[in-house]
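Support request from a user on the community tier.

User writes: "When I paste my structure tokens into the form, the page sometimes reloads and wipes my input. The last time it worked, I copied everything first. Here is what I submitted, just in case something in the input itself triggers the reload:"
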């Protein structure tokens, strides 16, 4: 639920006298790993993409989930994609407050997510590349049996092909909780291999920062969303303006 329990920094960590498992030896302890997803709305005169909800999930499922009031007035809720409505803003917290809470959860952690550069941009934050695990750019995921490899695959397709679960299928837009949980499940699927490779992969000269050309606006294209959310569906485009937000 929104405003749920925030995971403590030491939540789920192993006792100091216990030997690490092979999985732990291959990478960060579960308590040092979180997944994040944000939902966006359009704000200001130019409809700038801004964060309106953020969910952070720990390795073991503890949840931070809050609606966020953007710094500029909301002009397009993008409900069709974001699931955000005017009513959600009644219990939203200011961006500056949310930013401080969220960054406290992210700093010093391995952060998992899909197209993370969009979430970090919305948070006005730069996370260390060595501690970033973006499911958009993982060869171990893209090479899994049954998945047709291409440069980028949507979270929805990864979930269907690799986790055998359907996400983003409702009439009310996305759920950042569902997407964050799914990203963590994908991470855990190839965690050992990923962590074994990460230390050398991210330092290679040919390794590139996430392609900023694949930004929020492009990700709003219909190819990434449920077919039942097409034009004229009951999901609709959502509310478009709230000068008071």
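"...and here is what came back when it finally went through:"
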């Amino acid at each position: 639920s929104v405003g749920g329990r925030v995971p403590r920094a030491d939540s789920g960590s192993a006792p100091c006298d216990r030997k690490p498992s092979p999985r732990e030896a291959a990478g960060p302890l579960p308590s040092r790993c979180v997944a994040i997803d944000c939902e966006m709305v359009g704000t200001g005169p130019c409809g700038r993409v801004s964060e309106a909800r953020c969910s952070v999930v720990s390795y073991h499922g503890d949840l931070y989930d809050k609606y966020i009031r953007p710094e500029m007035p909301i002009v397009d809720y993008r409900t069709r994609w974001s699931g955000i409505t005017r009513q959600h803003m009644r219990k939203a917290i200011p961006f500056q407050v949310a930013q401080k809470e969220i960054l406290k959860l992210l700093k010093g952690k391995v952060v998992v997510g899909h197209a993370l550069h969009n979430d970090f941009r919305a948070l006005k934050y730069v996370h260390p590349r060595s501690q970033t695990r973006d499911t958009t750019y993982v060869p171990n995921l893209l090479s899994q049996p049954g998945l047709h490899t291409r440069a980028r695959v949507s979270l929805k397709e990864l979930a269907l092909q690799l986790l055998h679960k359907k996400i983003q299928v409702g009439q009310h837009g996305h759920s950042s909780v569902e997407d964050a949980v799914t990203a963590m499940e994908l991470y855990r699927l190839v965690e050992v291999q990923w962590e074994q490779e990460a230390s050398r992969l991210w330092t290679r000269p040919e390794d590139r920062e996430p392609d900023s050309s694949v930004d929020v606006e492009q990700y709003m294209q219909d190819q990434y969303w449920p077919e039942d959310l097409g034009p004229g569906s009951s999901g609709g485009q959502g509310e478009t303006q709230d000068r008071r937000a």
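Agent notes: The reload is a front-end session timeout and is unrelated to the input. The domain at 30-203 is CATH 3.30.420.10 (Nucleotidyltransferase; domain 5). The chain has nine helices and seven strands. Escalated to web team.
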